[in-house]
Design brief:
The chain is α/β, with parallel strands linked by helices. It folds into 3 domains: 35 residues; 347 residues, TIM Barrel; 86 residues, Golgi alpha-mannosidase II (Immunoglobulin-like). It contains 18 helices and 25 strands. The strands form 7 sheets. An 8-stranded parallel barrel has the order 3-4-7-11-12-15-16-17. A 6-stranded antiparallel sheet has the order 18-19-20-25-22-23. The protein has a 3-stranded antiparallel sheet with strand order 8-10-9, with no helix packed on it. The termini are far apart. This is Solute carrier family 3 (Neutral and basic amino acid transporter), member 1. It comes from Mytilus galloprovincialis (Mediterranean mussel).
Length: 659
């Protein structure tokens, strides 16, 4: 019965579909007429054929009709006009683009400056910076600064507050305990009183992406306790010729008349080997034989080791003494200095030898190989004190690059009379060089502190010269608060001071003065004795005081403002003009100007009286903006020097911006 019912329903549906449509719409009827009924088993499918000849269909123009339009004079004219308009428009746009390119102001040129071309650096003498040892702990170095002390000040923001971005750390290598880290016994380990290799790694981690790290590299000599020297004493290969040995007899004549930098013969008889070894410095610091290929490989390996630890640069200590003339000829008398003092000879066999320049080039190649990506450039730095022709050889000889930078001072004469003229002459001699840039320092661990040499009142002026010259600045710890020479320890911690005619360098290395309220100036725990006595003025001259309220014009704030000012393009890579006023040779002025950027006029009155001038001889725009004053507030708005002069008080520094 179910099958019969299904058949009847299908028959009825078919009959209904076969009936004429009641809609009178022709299109609808056409579609119905073209409907087909398809059966597939028990299913019915309706397929409707759509007519292609409906009223909505479009066949387009035929070939003959198109040819009629193509040959029509009107349409020919339209096509020609449109063609001409297209090319006229295209040429007009091309011409406009060329005019814009030619006439539009170009972006000013920016040289490709690396990090070492633009970052102010800060030199830390680790033993005197900050001690983090605590009472009750059996730790070496109580009362002696350490690497953790540097890390703590990094965390507290002292370096960032100053604006310095490169940290230069003096020797922290494991040493023989004679010359405060300069007598190395292990180039790949840390002096226990300063910390461990883990502290260096922590320091690198803390400074990552914030600061660059530069460390001392001491290739000229080692400690007499170094395993290399002990093996060389015993003529154990390959160390037999690791040092400069020459035959001599005990108590007899030395191999030649060469002198130590500290006076006396540069040769020392060794009982064990029965020969003399060369020591340019202390007898506890025998000179390495850097002409020996094995020694050269050792030094490259030392560089590679610290490069892998993330060090960004190396200050090559005693670069001028690296290699000697091995003919061993006697040096000629200089005509100055007393007998057996270093100054009594002309050191043409023991300084600035061509092989020393070649060594720097080898080490530079090691650093360049490690600089495998932009931003990872490495710096090789030297400090030399010689004429400029010789200095240039440290940068490059025979087309090969040596030192990245040479450190030197912008001042060599500290006579306050004529100081402005001396600065002008010195800078014109050594600074106005766009290719061979300098690192400017005022003092270091081996020199008198600048504040003691010249006085507090000149400190801001010299900081301005140091920081705003072409190149970059390197400030010795404590310069930011004008620390002065202190009182040496008793007994002295400086072995050089025990030699005739030598200064006691303890005075240049007194502990950093952090606070007036904390015992020991905040340098070390109150229960410890600082390794060198604190400066006598630490209660009135310290970081806490320099950062306090109502100290807006402190030397430290001046330092910070100058470092910030040095980040401007014209200071970083602009041309330099220096002079003194024709009408007053106590007034020093300098302009720094890079093409396409605002320039800067620096004015320093180094005399004892105020002076006013329009500074026409600087040949700059009359319209200036006051951007820095060492001891007062800034003048707001533009200044027109064609209408009014500027008055400069004694020892004051002003900086103006001009276009």
């Amino acid at each position: 019965m179910a099958d019969e019912s299904t058949v009847d329903e299908k028959a009825q549906l078919k009959a209904e579909l076969a009936e004429p449509a009641v809609d009178d719409d022709p299109k609808f009827n056409d579609n119905v007429e073209n409907a087909k009924f398809l059966t597939n088993g028990g299913d019915v499918k309706v397929e409707v054929e759509t007519s292609s000849s409906g009223g909505a269909s479009f066949t387009g123009l035929g070939k003959e009709e198109l040819l009629q339009y193509a040959n029509d004079p009107f349409w020919k004219k339209v096509r020609v006009i449109l063609f001409i308009l297209f090319w006229v428009g295209w040429i007009a746009m091309l011409a406009a683009a060329i005019v814009i390119i030619v006439l539009a102001p170009r972006c000013p040129h920016r040289p490709d400056l690396k990090w070492y071309d633009k970052q102010a650096s800060y030199q830390v003498y680790p033993k005197s910076f900050k001690d983090t040892n605590k009472p009750g702990k059996a730790e070496p170095g109580e009362g002696v600064g350490d690497l953790q002390g540097i890390i703590s000040e990094l965390e507290d923001g002292h370096f960032q507050d100053l604006g310095v971005e490169t940290l230069y750390i003096n020797s922290f290598y494991k040493s023989g305990g004679v010359d405060n880290g300069m007598d190395v016994v292990d180039y790949k380990d840390v002096e226990p009183s300063l910390g461990t290799l883990a502290h260096i790694r922590k320091l690198r981690k803390e400074t990552k992406d914030k600061m660059r790290l530069v460390v001392d590299f001491i290739p000229n000599h080692t400690s007499r306790n170094h395993t290399w020297f002990v093996s060389s004493q015993n003529k154990q290969d390959p160390y037999t010729d690791y040092y400069v040995w020459r035959p001599c007899t005990k108590g007899g004549a030395m191999p030649n008349n060469w002198l130590s930098v500290y006076g006396g013969s540069a040769w020392e008889y060794d009982d064990l080997r029965g020969e003399c070894y060369l020591h340019t410095f202390l007898k506890e610091q025998p000179d390495l034989n850097l002409m020996n290929e094995d020694v050269r490989k050792e030094m490259k390996d030392v560089l590679s080791f610290w490069l892998k630890e993330g060090i960004d640069g190396f200050h090559v200590r005693n670069a001028e003494y690296l290699v000697e003339n091995m003919t061993l000829g006697n040096e000629l008398a200089s005509g100055s200095g007393s007998v057996m003092t270093y100054e009594s000879l002309i050191h043409d066999h023991t300084t600035h030898q061509p092989e020393s320049f070649e060594l720097l080039q080898e080490w530079r190649a090691v650093l360049d190989t490690a600089a495998n990506k932009p931003g990872r450039e490495k710096a090789l730095i030297v400090t030399v004190d010689t004429d400029m022709n010789t200095t240039m050889k440290y940068y490059e000889t025979n087309g090969k690059s040596g030192a990245t930078y040479v450190r030197m001072s912008p001042i060599t004469n500290y006579d306050k009379n004529g100081l402005a003229t001396h600065l002008k002459d010195r800078i014109q001699e050594v600074a106005v060089d766009d290719v061979h840039r300098k690192i400017w320092m005022l003092d270091n661990e081996n020199l008198d502190r600048i504040a003691s040499l010249i006085g507090d009142e000149y400190m801001k002026a010299l900081l301005a010269v140091q920081i705003l010259l072409p190149g970059v600045s390197s400030s010795y710890y404590g310069d930011e608060i004008a620390m002065k020479n202190g009182v040496p320890a008793t007994p002295s911690k400086d072995p050089v001071s025990k030699l005739p005619g030598q200064k006691n360098r303890d005075a240049f290395r007194t502990p950093m003065q952090w606070s007036s309220e904390q015992p020991n100036a905040g340098f070390t725990d109150p229960t410890f004795m600082p390794w060198i006595p604190l400066g006598t003025n630490y209660k009135t001259n310290n970081v806490q005081h320099a950062k306090a309220y109502h100290s807006k014009h402190s030397i430290m704030n001046t330092f910070k403002q100058l470092v910030l000012l040095a980040s401007n393009e014209s200071i970083q890579f602009g041309k330099t003009v220096v002079s003194v006023l024709k009408d007053n040779n106590d007034v020093f002025w300098m302009t720094r100007k890079a093409e396409g950027f605002s320039g800067y006029l620096v004015i320093i009155n180094l005399g004892d009286s105020p002076f006013a001038s329009n500074f026409k001889e600087a040949k700059i725009s009359n319209t200036l903006m006051h951007v820095f004053h060492s001891d007062g507030d800034l003048i707001e708005g533009d200044m027109d020097l064609s209408k009014r002069a500027v008055s400069i008080a004694p020892k004051h520094v002003h900086v103006y911006k001009f276009d």
